[in-house]
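WARN no homologs supplied; continuing
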Amino acid sequence: MDMHTVVSGEDAQRGIARVVVGDGRAAATTAADVVAVARHGARIELSEEAVAALAAAREVVDALAAKPEPVYGVSTGFGALATRHISTELRAQLQRNIVRSHAAGMGPRVEREVVRALMFLRLKTVCSGHTGVRPEVAQTMADVLNAGITPVVHEYGSLGCSGDLAPLSHCALTLMGEGDAEGPDGVVRPAGELLAEHGIAPVELREKEGLALLNGTDGMLGMLVMALDDLDTLYKSADITAALSMEALLGTDKVLAPELHAIRPHPGQAASAANMLAVLKGSGLTGHHQDDAPRVQDAYSVRCAPQVAGAGRDTMAHARLVAERELAAAVDNPVVLPDGRVESNGNFHGAPVAYVLDFLAIAAADLGSIAERRTDRLLDKNRSHGLPPFLADDPGVDSGLMIAQYTQAALVSEMKRLAVPASADSIPSSAMQEDHVSMGWSAARKLRTAVDNLARIVAVELYAATRGIELRDGLVPAPASRAAIAAVREAGVQGPGPDRFLAPDLAAADAFVRSGALVAAVETVTGPLA
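OK structure emitted
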């Protein structure tokens, strides 16, 4: 296998995984590899196959560099300046200059995990043998990641075409020993000092290498992979909170019957309905429709929960397919082909990734919206079927969760703004040479905010639904619901009672959801959820 995550030797003793990078021919990088490196500090090794592929591609580039004919990226300028043939003595300077000039990002720093994913995915492509980069440059990339050195990369500087140019340039600048980077201690210092401390020699770039380090969709792809990792937990959590809300509202679980979902065969819908049904198994609260406000059917936000969450799950499945294809790709321009040709191409255009990043933001916004509607219903005495107004201890004296729902509503409103597609926009650059771009980096950045907001929205529903269930005196919730309530209370989220400072409870609920603890608690009863 060319790239896989393993744990062995000293790393195993310290609990650190190791990712072995190959040439991509036998097995592509996996999403788990990206998460292991970006979030969990997995160490990276280059396989013999990768080193051989790097050396073979470099021989092709060196041979072309020796010829008098100009070759883009090897002996020419870049972008709109590609018409100039660069003489041999200026080519090293050309490669340094492209890195320095393209490291033009602005704004706040992006997160450490994003930079690590960005660098790792670029290393993956470099090791494919399609870029012409020397083995020692690839090894330096691995060494920097293994040392815990993180280049300072800024929020703005990528249009999502010709790759994530400015972000990748800031990473390449660190390899040269220039610019700023964060050390393993979290302190930002000159990159040259950090490299020296860790015994890493700065690279001296040669023909094509500067361009090859910059020309990829690695930032947007890394953020897509991590968003999918987070959303997997959040969609399971949302199924759980929807089930808890159904219990608290005395709804009917008959709408979750498998035969109803089989006649509209969307896989995600069936999975969400099955999750909710598993959570509600054995509930003494569901099905009490003939109360003080009898109803034939539950409101859409309750009854249609599997249809909305399921559509989001199917969107995630499509996004995973795109991510898997990108993880198997070698994105660069020009590329070294197996027959020795070096050809220009347009594979750096980020449209495939940008579209699914935007699609996920739309799905996440709708999931947040329906969760907020259920929360509002729990708080409204006219629609909650017997619960006190705002789930307050002494309504009028106590406001209960009134303003928690305000906060949730504000988050939902922002989610709707973040759902506006970035990929529908394009703005020309490089003297109209790069006249259509994907804006995929922007789509990825707003999706990260949307995912954060979704976790908070689900946490507020969890807070309201568990309180609502506990206020149903004399009715016994499902075993899985009881497990969720016990775990969230143990995590520091308090139950019903007089008004108190709510922000700490909401923060604890957010951390509980985000960590996967809600899913874990429920799965002790239900077994693995879909």
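DSSP finds 20 helices and ten strands in the chain.
OK
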